[in-house]
Request: fold
Amino acid sequence: MSDSPKSSVVSYADVVRAAEVLSGQVINTPCRHSRVLSRITGADVWLKFENFQFTASFKERGALNKLAGLTEAERAAGVAAMSAGNHAQGVAYHATRLGIKSVIVMPVNTPFTKVKNTRELGGEVILHGENLAESQAFLEAELIRGRGMTLVHPYDDAKVIAGQGTIALEMLAAVPELDTLVIPIGGGGLISGMAIAAHGIKPDLRVVGVESAGYPSAYAALQGDPNLVKGGQTIAEGIAVRNIGKLTIAIIREHVAELMRVDEASIERAVGLLATIEKVIAEGAGATGLAALLSDPARFAGRKVGLVICGGNIDSRLLASVLLRQLVHESRLVSLTIDIEDRPGFLARVAGRVGDSGGNIIQVHHERLHASTHAKNASLELLIEAQDELHADQIIADLQGAGFVVRRGVGGMEFD
Reply:
């Protein structure tokens, strides 16, 4: 095994020391083979379930490694962090456990459930700023300089980076034959630590970074063009970071073989597959590694790939929406508009035909008032459950064979 390049601020030895600090205080999460995802992607896929940590995120590792290294004076003064989610909970949980006061500055628009969880874990929450940059400015002025607290940065800190790297140590101990790691990138702490650790054990291991298409902060930094970060809505909020870390970009430049950008549809599909196949809940950021394999399976075909399910903190309403959208995408939920005569018996005929074809009607709306509809006609808008796309096509064909005019989509809105 070789140490990481001397130009790095974090070494392989630093990660090994972090593993000793974390031993028995965070979960050595399972790293398991997925036969179904391997078949779907064409790679030999192994999953590291960091969503099984107590706060459902890998962020505990870096936070605890930083906290454990504080001096007595620093512990007495307390720690401060800015975060809109997982890092906040990791810092609050372990600081409280170690008897250290923690203050977390969160943007004012942070979902209430994340604010509530952070407070329940013992952190004092201050809501300030419209975004993390404004939260950080307040934190540095009021808490670091004003009150002498120690900053626990979410990614741009050597101790935090080393703590996150312990994931790779565990993965390669469990599955030494891994030849590729596919790792999400937000601020870069996770991939930096894992890449250093992995290359300390297997220098030729391939490290691939994955970013949200709207927030390719590492790619933009390497290209020298911050305008490449377009922003916008994403379900991968955990990696929706506009500016990569200064420490982490140097490590990424040395250790990461390639970067990928994945779109929202791929991330949604990955969340859905992890729920339906692996029976685990992953947040958008936690599913981006799988999204990369789904987006470009040829790139990973035949390789032994390790993926990190780095977090499971997804809003239940968003998860429900993602799963339903996935059913629509797979044509297991199909919306149909059917023209009928507005007289007794026609609704029953349609329902009977759908039932005979093996479909299940989930929802029905009987519409008589469309301007384009004849006064003696009506339209049925149905939401039908099918087994798969072929079954959905068969249901439609059977309805058409029975003489009905059928259109996919409700009220003229198509899903594909």
Observations:
- Confidence is low (pLDDT under 50) at residues 1-7, 410-416.
- The CA atoms of residues 235 and 284 lie 5 Å apart.
